[in-house]
Automatic annotation (TrEMBL):
Source organism: Suillus luteus UH-Slu-Lm8-n1
Single GO MF descriptor: methionine-tRNA ligase activity
Family matches, as PANTHER family: METHIONINE--TRNA LIGASE, METHIONINE--TRNA LIGASE, CYTOPLASMIC
Region (Disordered): 601-637
Gene Ontology CC terms: aminoacyl-tRNA synthetase multienzyme complex; cytoplasmic ribonucleoprotein granule; cytosol; methionyl glutamyl tRNA synthetase complex
GO biological process, one term: methionyl-tRNA aminoacylation
Protein name: methionine--tRNA ligase
Pfam annotation, one family: Anticodon_3
Family note: Belongs to the class-I aminoacyl-tRNA synthetase family.
Biased composition (Low complexity): 622-635
Record keywords, A-Z: Aminoacyl-tRNA synthetase, ATP-binding, Cytoplasm, Ligase, Nucleotide-binding, Protein biosynthesis
Alphabetical list of InterPro entries matching this protein: aa-tRNA-synth_I_CS, Anticodon_Met, Met-tRNA_ligase_1, Met-tRNA_synth, Methionyl/Leucyl_tRNA_Synth, MetRS_core, MetRS_Zn, Rossmann-like_a/b/a_fold
Length: 693
């Protein structure tokens, strides 16, 4: 199809999508290095984890690509340490097998959410060991490591020292009986396992746990503090940090640990699963033999080592403070490790590291009046978002529009549905569809001659001065917000721009009558609306990349940069693609269906109670190998059939739960309709399978 696009650096995007080509920084240019907090590799992420770091960082990564900046986005799974060993113990597997399993689940989840890492790696690699050990050795050579002998919990039955999370006992502060060795869930205070009253070994609670001394290496944070304080004050000002737990809006360091004076912190642990301690060439090397690096020491180095897995030229990113800006995204509970611990480590290492430029943190996202809980099946975890049928773009929009930037936020199914129906469908989607369908129907999909010259539209235009001025002001607001990493404000501004586009079409009276009475004006309105849609394809790309791709397909246009002003960039004679709806309405009754589906223990309990009944019925009727829809199945079932049967069984429990709770008839009917649809899908799948058997 014919394309007529204005060519220029201020129009077309030259930086590829994430992961499409190797990216290295270039001297003299703005180069952006982005990291997201590494998720623990012992569970699947929930929606709060996703918005807290990986999704937010993805938005900023994509935004910088729309500014034609060389951008690298790095993340991966944090695999070493006590949490992994404990989880593997509970699942009856090895730490390596556990990490392989959850790495795949994390990767699958992020891919479905269109989170575009340049590289999603892991910390259990040879490159990670190499870089961690080099930093440890440098700290030793620079005089920042010291040996300390401390009492630790020791299990006489297991014959080994117990890491914090292998120990439970009575909290010495609040007397909570099941306090963990690192933190009490009763009073939320951090603990030293040795202080627990009546400590118990999690491996075998009958074993006797005692105190025994052990030698460990400590990082002398107290010695690093003067240089660290100078660095924090300079970086806070240069990177325009938002107020956080380390420094306030006035540039005053408020972290209690720094105010009272940092103390040496352990960097080794008595574990098997971790980075082995390398010899320092000192008398105490033998005492460190068999120990590993503490997970918080090695985890933050994961950003560097994962970059090392991505490119052998990783030092161009990490030893380049003059040309690379490092942006780091995380939840509020990780601030200490990224503003104090990690920077202190890099400063003490002695090499010229790229250090934090800007820190972006979030508060917590809660779920329907409570908290996400994997153990209670409460909330949406990992791949379960896909099962709702809500597209990834809509998930991204809702999560980002409620991003907890300054206070905790609450996930709500009703709000999620309203965001799709009232904002995406009726505002953004309506503007795009109305303009493109009119162009397709009235001009045979070819942009007419409007009289506008290629390039920026004049804010003194005799007919549209107010419209052009408004759009240009909103574009400035968008750029200002995104440059300051105010992601939620950036998204709100995109929706204001599309709303202004709707208002423009309405005020201009775009219809057949205008085309007949004033064809020149009609062509002008169409051209300006189409060019605004082209702008929106770039503005929405960081937040909803699939929606951006859909816009570009309908426009038949290449990816563009974010402009500073509204311009005529799609020119007369350009043929657009086929207009189509970007979004579909979500039935409001699904609110109650999903509340039950993801509501927690009560739903799970009902499912457990119903399951034996279903099995007895199946046995009585001789339908042991029949699908839930009654279709006879010959031979072993395919994975697709098994998965669909499980979904039908699960949704059946949802329907029963709605009926038992005497929910409104329209809510029950919506759930029943969905159940029938799933059963019909299974019938077609079985017929297809039997036909080819």
């Amino acid at each position: 199809m014919t394309q007529k696009i204005r060519v220029g650096d201020d129009v077309l995007r030259s930086i590829p999508d994430p992961g499409q080509a190797a990216v290295l920084p270039k001297d003299g240019e703005t180069n952006i290095l982005i990291t997201s907090a590494l998720p623990y590799c012992n569970n699947v992420p929930h929606l709060g984890n996703i918005i807290g770091s990986t999704l937010s960082a993805d938005v900023f990564s994509r935004y910088n690509r729309t500014r034609n900046r060389r951008t690298l986005y790095i993340c991966g799974t944090d695999e070493y340490g006590t949490a992994t060993e404990t989880a593997a113990l509970k699942e009856g597997t090895t730490p390596r097998e556990l990490c392989d399993k959850y790495y795949a689940l994390h990767k699958e989840t992020y891919e479905w959410f269109d989170i575009g890492f340049d590289h999603f790696g892991r910390t259990s690699t040879a490159k990670h060991t190499e870089i961690c050990q080099s930093i440890y050795l440098n700290l030793g050579q620079q005089g920042y490591l010291e040996k300390q002998i401390k009492d630790q919990t020791y299990c006489e039955g297991c014959k080994k020292f117990l890491a914090d999370r292998y120990v439970e006992g009575i909290c010495p502060n609040c007397s909570y009986v099941d306090a963990r060795g690192d933190q009490c869930d009763g009073c939320s205070r951090t603990l030293d396992a040795i202080d627990l009253i009546e400590p118990r070994c999690l491996i075998d609670k009958t074993h006797n746990v005692i105190a025994r001394s052990s030698s460990h290496m400590y990082f002398k944070l107290d010695a690093a503090q003067p240089a660290l304080e100078d660095w924090i004050k300079k970086s806070w000002k240069k990177g325009k940090w938002s107020p956080n737990a380390t420094i306030n809006a006035d540039g005053e360091i408020v972290d209690a640990r720094m105010k009272s004076g940092l103390k040496p912190t352990p960097v080794t642990r008595d574990l098997a699963w971790g980075v082995p301690i390398p010899p320092l060439g000192r008398e105490d090397d033998e005492e460190m033999s068999g120990k590993v690096l503490y997970v918080w020491f090695d985890a933050v180095i994961g950003y560097v080592s994962i970059t090392g897995e991505y490119t052998p030229e990783w030092k161009q990113w990490w030893f380049n403070p003059d040309n690379v800006r490092l942006y780091q995204f995380m939840g509020k509970d990780n601030v200490y490790f990224h503003t104090i611990y990690f920077p202190a480590m890099l400063l003490a290492d002695g090499r010229d590291w790229t250090t934090l430029h800007h820190l972006s943190t979030t508060e917590y996202l809660n779920y329907e009046g409570g908290k996400f809980s994997k153990s209670k099946n409460r909330g949406v975890f990992g791949p379960a978002a896909k099962e709702t049928g809500i597209p990834a773009s809509v998930w991204r929009y809702y999560l980002l529009s409620t991003r907890p930037e300054t206070a905790d936020a609450m996930f709500s199914w009703a709000d999620c549905i309203a965001a799709n129906n009232n904002v995406l469908l009726k505002n953004f989607g309506n503007f795009v569809n109305r303009a493109l369908k009119f162009l397709s129907a009235q001009y045979d999909s070819v942009l007419p001659e409007s009289g506008d010259a290629p390039g920026p539209l004049s804010p003194n235009d005799p007919l549209d001065a107010e419209f052009i001025t408004d759009i240009n002001a909103l574009l400035k607001d968008y750029i200002d917000a995104m440059e300051s990493v105010k992601i939620r404000l950036g998204l709100q501004t995109v929706m204001l721009i599309s709303s202004r586009g709707n208002g423009y079409l309405q005020a201009s009276g775009l219809n057949k009558a205008l085309m007949t009475s004033n064809p020149q004006r009609c062509a002008q309105v169409v051209s300006r609306a189409v060019n605004l849609i082209y702008v929106l394809s770039a503005l929405i790309y960081p937040f909803m990349p699939a929606t951006s791709d859909g816009l570009l397909l309908q426009l038949n246009a290449p990816a563009r940069v974010v402009p500073e002003v509204l311009s005529t960039d799609i020119l007369a004679g350009h043929r657009i693609g086929q207009p189509d709806h970007l979004f579909k309405n979500i039935d409001e009754k699904m609110d109650q269906v999903w509340k039950v589906r993801f509501g927690g223990d009560e739903s799970a309990k009902k499912e457990e109670e119903e399951a034996p009944t279903s099995k007895r019925k199946a046995k009585k009727t001789g339908a042991g190998n029949a699908a839930p829809n009654g279709v006879a199945v010959s031979g072993p079932k395919s994975p697709e059939v098994v998965a669909l049967e499980a979904k039908i069984l699960e949704h059946g429990q949802v329907v029963r739960g709605l009926k038992e709770n005497k929910e409104p008839k329209d809510v029950v009917d919506a759930a029943v309709t969905e159940l029938k649809r799933l059963k019909a899908e299974l019938v077609l799948l079985e017929k297809s399978r039997n036909a080819t058997a």
